[in-house]
Amino acid sequence: MKKPILILSALAILSSCQEPQSDESTMRKALDYPETRKGTDTLEFWGESVPDPYSWLEDDRSEETAAWVKAQNQLTRSVLDSIPFRQAIADRYKALFDYEKVGSPYKVGDNYFIYKNSGLQNQSVIYVRQGREGEEKVFLDPNALSEDGTVTAGLMGASKDHKYMAITRSEAGSDWSQIRVMNIETGEETGDVLKWVKFSGADWWNDGFFYSRYPAPAAGDELSAENTFHKVYYHKLGTDQEDDVLIYENLDAPNMYHWTSLTEDGKYLVLYASTGTDGYECYYKEAGLSGEFTPLFTGFSNKSSVIDHVDGRFLVSTDIDAPKSKLVSIDPASPQKENWIEVIPESEDLLEGVSSAGGKLFATYLSKASNKVEVMNLDGSDRKSINLPDQTGSVGGFGGEKDDETLFYSFTSFTYPTSIYEYNIATGESELYYAPELDFNPSDYESKQVMYPSKDGTMVSMFLVHKKGLEMDGKRPTMLYAYGGFNVSLTPSFSTSNIILLENGGVYAMANLRGGGEYGEEWHKAGMLDKKQNVFDDFIAAAEYLVAQGYTDSDHLAIAGGSNGGLLVGACMIQRPELYKVAFPAVGVMDMLRYHKFTVGWGWIPEYGCADSSKTEYDYLKAYSPYHNLIVKAYPSTMVTTADHDDRVVPAHSFKFSARLQEVHQGANPVLIRIEEKAGHGAGKPTSKVIDEQADKWAFMFAEMGLSYPMK
Questions:
Q1: 702 backbone dihedrals φ, ψ, rounded to 5°
Q2: Could you give the CA distance from residue 320 to residue 300 in angstroms, rounded to a whole number?
Q3: Residues 6 or more apart from 25 whose CB is under 8 A from it?
Q4: For the chain, which terminal residue's Cβ has fewer other Cβ atoms within 10 angstroms, N or C?
């Protein structure tokens, strides 16, 4: 995730005052922070009273909150716009970003759908052509749906007869979406509109599809109220949403996700049920509008997914007794573990995913946080490695249907712009389909992976990217990025934004912290719940390594992360404020005692725990909760970023954290909050906003480090 970053308003004053000051009034004068009312609210947890003085900022509909947001944005813009080279960075990034971007073709019958962006279009346009060499036509242009590019739209899936395409449409970055349907031949909408959809697919069966949605929220509460009772419906084309058939609900458990998939042969509908973002249950039934679901996997300690249905048996990817995952074949009539047939055994590398296409299985592995792919028969025999462009990088794709003869996949790395390849299933050969042309010479840069010890001695991997032959003088401007949670794996990928740093002699570092999924479920569990401090220790150790090895120093080190990574940055800048010059906590989970009260925050309880559940969980959450651990002292130059339509990690987290940080921070380092309008958690952000955000980030970082741009 990208995060915005910014600079000081009184540039001359702030760049000359590097030492912390104990006089809060001096800091107030330097930046003239907006006044923020400090309330008297307190919360009770297990016999303890916890102050919550900025709880009023949770009300995103109040005039007082709106006035606060406006005042903070005015201050932030005055600071950022005063940076002499901010526009030069924006111009350079715009030039770097202005190249054609092409996605992997998606085959539907004889048609191929392709996402393309000519360079600076706010949203990618979806084209369709009949056959590989047919005339390319615009199928769906999201840019035509709004003047400012804040409406997004994408493909969800085609009907089995290849006549219709379900599409998703969202506004201003919200997780809420609508499902609409388009006639593939005519390119016109059918008039079907399904509302209040979140976290759903569209699984076509007969003359309609299965999907998941929530009940309509109360007016005014759409972006902050808790989302409950996620249900599965079937929608028949040409009918009103109110006539959709309810397929599954669980009224005894309002805080659960439910989603479905349909086996390619159309025989089985598979239902998944989850209490949050970790393990999930799996059920199945014969496809149709009636009939009960039969349990295949129960309990929420593991993750088991049906990949395909072949010869009367399910192919299932599972981490049961296999923390790095394996693939097994299961007879629905006798699904007991003793009857499983192992198809792909667990190995030293994480089995990240398995897909089936063209009568083959494609297994994607993570080996030292980089992908490798193997192809084999459906029974796991005759395994062969697929030759990728490089040993260090990330792949996507290898999906298709059983009759496909070719597949498409993407490959990228830190120095390899995302390129598309076509894979011939019969020959096992890959052919370049598309490679971008941009103002960047990969041969000028290098990346490497290092291992460093964390506080408890655990060895952690980290990628480093910089110019070839760069002299490490201990003062290189360095950006350290990480995530560390939810079993998410950070792997090498290309970023035009990072070129701004790299071409100016900087270093980009990305650490694979515990809590992530890079090394399997055990690595994930070592950074969740009461072990969350391991994640912060890993990140702090990464920063210490960069300093000790002479890459940078504390005056030239910035830290960044978004969402769970925003929590990471918030916690680490509090625990070791002297270690970093600049901090960029983006769309972060900052109030760990109340996060579960908003939208789908309850879904993170399996990862974090819940302060309401037990004194033990309350104790460890309060111990690192960024909002609750800010005290009077000097903190790094900070730019918090959030967005007014973020209904995943609601902006109240960032509002409350920023208000408290401005209250207690000592010294001349600026504390800013950048609140994007008509944007959400990050997905679908229009190009124009991305460019502005990244220009603000690098300008703030360089200026706070006392650097010029371009660097001499």
A1: -60, -45
A2: 11
A3: none
A4: C
Give the three-class secondary structure for 96. Answer: helix
d(CA 139, CA 180): 14
Catalytic, 681? Answer: yes
- Strand 416-424 and strand 406-413: the pairing is antiparallel
* Under 8 Å between Cβ of 3 and 672: no
Return d(Cα 180, Cα 579) in angstroms, integer: 50
User: 497 and 417 in contact (C-beta within 8 Å)?
Assistant: no
Among residues 279, 257, 320, 230, the alpha carbon closest in space to that of 607 is found at 279
Query: How many CA atoms are closer than 13 Å to the CA of 499, on its beta-carbon side?
Result: 21
Q: In this predicted structure, what is the pLDDT of residue 16?
A: 28
**Radius of gyration over every alpha carbon of the chain, rounded to an integer in angstroms:** 25
Architecture label for domain 11-95+440-704? 3-Layer(aba) Sandwich (3.40)
Query: 290, exposed or middle or buried, with CB in 10 Å at 0-12, 13-18, 19+?
Result: exposed
Confidence check: pLDDT of 145 > 80: yes
Tell me, what DSSP letter sits at residue 633? B
Q: Tell me, rounded to whole angstroms, the distance of Cα 481 from its chain centroid.
A: 13
Residue with tokens 């003047």: 147
Asked if the model's pLDDT at residue 700 lies above 60, the reply is yes
The residue among 648 and 451 whose pLDDT is bigger is 451
Task: Domain ranges for the chain, please list them.
Answer: 11-95+440-704, 349-437
Top-confidence residue, 644 or 459: 459
563 a catalytic residue: yes
Please pick, among 563, 625, 637, 658, the residue that the annotation labels catalytic: 563
Mean pLDDT of the chain: 93
